[in-house]
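@channel sequence for tomorrow's demo:
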Amino acid sequence: MSIPPERIEPPASSVPSEVDPHTIDDPLRAAAETMRQVRERCVWSQRITHRDLVPYLIEESHEVIDAVEAGTRADLREELGDLLWQVLFHAAIAAQDPEDPFDIDDVAATLTEKMVRRHPHVFAGETAATPEEVLVHWNAAKAAEKRARTSALDGIPRGMPALALAQKVAGRAAGVGVATPAAMGPRSEEELGDALLALVGRARAEGWDAERALRTRLRLLEAEVRAAEG
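C-alpha cells (generated this afternoon):
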C-alpha cells in the first residue's frame, strides 16, 4: 500500500451527497455518519486495518497532550476532534468484522455501563465525600470486573513509554508491598524534571539507551512483584 496521507481525515469529496452529515442534529451522530461513509466510499480508508491506525492513534494522542500543555482552546478543540476521529475509525472497521462486529453505539454502551458501575456514589446511592473515597469505589468496581486477573501487573499496556510504564508498575508494586529503590534528590515536580533530564543527558554521553535501561530494570521489579504474589 502506498504511503498514506500524513493525517487520516476525510476530504469533503469523500462524503456522498445522498446523506449530508450537516443535516443531522446530533453532532456526535453526524461525525459517526461521516466516518461510516468515508469507510464505505473512500478507497484508501476501505483498506485500513486496526493495526494500520495505531501510529495515527499515538500521534493524535500526543497532539492532544501538546494542546493541553501548550496550546490554545481552539487547538485543544481541534485535537480532541482528531482523536475522536480515530475512535470512530476503529469502530467503523470493527463494524465490518465478519465474525464479531461491533459499532460505535456498542462502544458507547459498554463505556456507559462501565462508568455508571464505577461511580456508585453518583448513580447507586453510595457515599464518597473525598477523592480518596471515590478511589475506593472505583478500585472495588474495577477489581470486581477483573476477577480473571491473577497478578497486580495484569492489564498494564506493555506498549507504554518506559517512564509512564515505570510509574504504573511502581504503583502496582506498592499495592502488593514491593518497594521501589529510594532516591534522594528532587523536592518538587520541577526539580524532578531537571533530575530526569540530567540522567538522560548522562545516558546519552555514556552511549547508554535510557529507554532500554529503564525497561530492563522494570522487568526485575515485575519479577519481584510476581514472586511476592506467590
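heads up for whoever presents: The domain at 12-101 is CATH 1.10.287.1080 (Helix Hairpins).
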